[in-house]
Amino acid sequence: MPEAARDPIDEPLLAIQDLHAWYGESHVLHGIDITVPRGSVVTLLGRNGAGKSTTLKSIMGMVPQRRGSIRIQDTEIIDLPPYEIAPQGVAFCPEDRGIYATLDVKENLELPPRINRSGLSTDQVLDLFPNLRERLHSPGSKLSGGEQQMLAIGRILRTGANLLLLDEPTEGLAPSIVEQIGSTIARLKQQGYTILLVEQNLKFAMSVADYHYLIDHGRVVASYDRRTIQHHANDVLERLGV
Ligand SMILES: Nc1ncnc2c1ncn2[C@@H]1O[C@H](COP(=O)(O)OP(=O)(O)OP(=O)(O)O)[C@@H](O)[C@H]1O
């Protein structure tokens, strides 16, 4: 089939099948199936405790007990440790953003190792987030929530990852900053990045994503594309408990 005629869903960059995960005795994911096409933005929606963060952490190898299949392109990563998963081109931005309070913006940015040469330079990250350029020598503890989020995203762009896992990037941010994060995600998508993000803000999710998975009690209970989610927005809001 010619490249242009192919449906992107045929070319998943990330494919998760029958993923189970445990914290000790506690079985929290019960057979998750998710496909993330290359170059798409996909959201995981669901109420608190549904298993969204655990899904991202499982991809990154940060949940010690997991079973099923997680493939990045053609590589099975379910049994790999995090330091072997990152070189597959995947990076994780945690919900707490993971900014080191005593390091300044430049030091925080330059901390993670590069996994390949396609990683952005510090200058390129600062072009993407001009606010950070003005704060280059401010310690992490003095940054606003929005600046911390931009720094957290900028930091993973430096690594050279092309699959970005973002855990609630808009949480606690003012509407104007949420808008900036939305524009950044759209720009990253245009540049060819693939993004899987956890969101509770449905309006934001609908504005940035191509596909959505609704998670409840560790299972995918519904999935939507850009068009179908419009028809089910009320239903989804109810399931999010907002
Ligand atoms: N480190 C942990 N140890 C034990 N249980 C955990 C741990 N982290 C999460 N859980 C539990 O696993 C379940 C799924 O949590 P998870 O954080 O994946 O949910 P979530 O959908 O991301 O919600 P939230 O937005 O509240 O983080 C919840 O019952 C939670 O209490």
TrEMBL record:
GO terms for biological process: L-amino acid transport. SMART domains: AAA. Keywords: Amino-acid transport, ATP-binding, Nucleotide-binding, Transport. It holds the Pfam family ABC_tran. PROSITE patterns: ABC_TRANSPORTER_1 (PS00211), ABC_TRANSPORTER_2 (PS50893). Residues 14-242 form the ABC transporter domain. InterPro entries: AAA+_ATPase (IPR003593), ABC_transporter-like_ATP-bd (IPR003439), ABC_transporter-like_CS (IPR017871), BCAA_Transport_ATP-bd_LivF (IPR052156), P-loop_NTPase (IPR027417). GO terms for molecular function: ATP binding; ATP hydrolysis activity; branched-chain amino acid transmembrane transporter activity. Belongs to the ABC transporter superfamily. This is Amino acid/amide ABC transporter ATP-binding protein 2, HAAT family.
